[in-house]
Specification:
It is a single chain. The chain has 91 residues and is mainly alpha-helical. Helix content is 74%, strand content 0%. The N and C termini lie far apart (28 Å).
């Protein structure tokens, strides 16, 4: 399964935006998602609902958990639809 950072960012952003967090916390997390988060950190955010440091040791564990979760299918579906829309707009 191909992982696309852009779709992970979009899904993570949606989860944060729809959360009950205060506005300033949302803004801070959205900034992290857009500018700093790695693919693995985005996976961990979707899985556990919190921002985490992911070491090289835990990276494969997070990736395995993500690939076994419903988020993997959601990310792939989102990426496919996003790519189709991007190709359509370029014409």
């Amino acid at each position: 399964m191909k992982i696309y950072k852009e779709s992970l960012q979009a899904l993570s952003g949606l989860v944060v935006t729809e959360s009950k967090l205060p506005s300033d916390a949302k803004e801070s997390i959205l900034n992290f998602i857009q500018h700093e988060a790695s693919e693995t950190q985005l996976m961990a955010l979707l899985l556990d609902g919190k921002v985490q440091n992911v070491s090289e040791v835990t990276k494969p564990i997070v990736q395995e958990r993500f690939n076994a979760s419903p988020w993997a299918v959601a990310q792939e579906t989102f990426a496919e639809n996003f790519t189709k829309k991007s190709r359509t707009k370029k014409k």
